[in-house]
Write a structure and sequence with these properties.
Blueprint (H helix, E strand, L loop, with lengths): L1 E7 L2 E9 L5 H12 L5 H22 L5 E9 L2 E8 L26 H9 L2 E6 L5 E8 L20
Antiparallel strand pairs: 1-2, 2-3, 3-4, 4-6, 5-6
Helix pairs in contact: 1-2, 2-3
Length: 163
């Protein structure tokens, strides 16, 4: 697995490339969590890592294969987190059952496609794109909050605040 962090003007970016193996997914989750920790709120971080895991798992199980890598890019800018996952597999048409807004809980979701259903509840936008000639790019976007210890005016992130 290769990881390239980049903190430039107006935001930060992390790029990861890993072999399409379920054994690599834990490393990807750890790298993204480490790269985002302290940059977004804990709640946002948990939801983003879970949504990433679902998309990366789909890329490994249904996308990349035969030695092709999966690419992940994470960008934080302007109050938004954007994660893209690119696989090199054959494009499969997802079931539309996951996108039914009337479904309030996972039990009502279809037996397959729950990953897409879950991603849709964890982030503000899920975009699936076919990439020519082969492959799929999943883009996850979520408006993110600033962690409490980074908010302006917060004097101490380690001790109690006196009022």
């Amino acid at each position: 697995m290769t990881s390239t962090p980049n903190r430039g003007r107006g935001g930060s970016r992390l790029e990861i490339q890993f072999s399409a193996s379920p054994a690599r997914l834990a490393d990807v989750r750890r790298a993204v969590r480490s790269g985002l920790e302290g940059r977004v709120s804990d709640e946002d971080l948990d939801d983003l890592v879970l949504a990433l895991n679902e998309a990366a798992t789909n890329a490994v199980l249904h996308g990349s294969g035969r030695g092709h890598a999966v690419e992940v890019a994470v960008r934080i800018s302007g109050g938004w987190a954007e994660i893209t996952i690119l696989d090199r597999g054959h494009v499969q048409r997802p079931s539309r059952a996951w996108d039914d807004e009337d479904r309030a809980d996972g039990d009502a979701a279809p037996a397959s496609g729950r990953g897409l259903w879950l991603m849709g509840r964890l982030v503000d936008e899920v975009r699936l794109e076919r990439i020519h000639p082969h492959g799929t790019r999943v883009t996850l976007r979520r408006r993110v909050g600033v962690p409490a210890e980074r908010k302006p005016g917060n004097q101490s992130a380690t001790g109690p605040t006196k009022v």
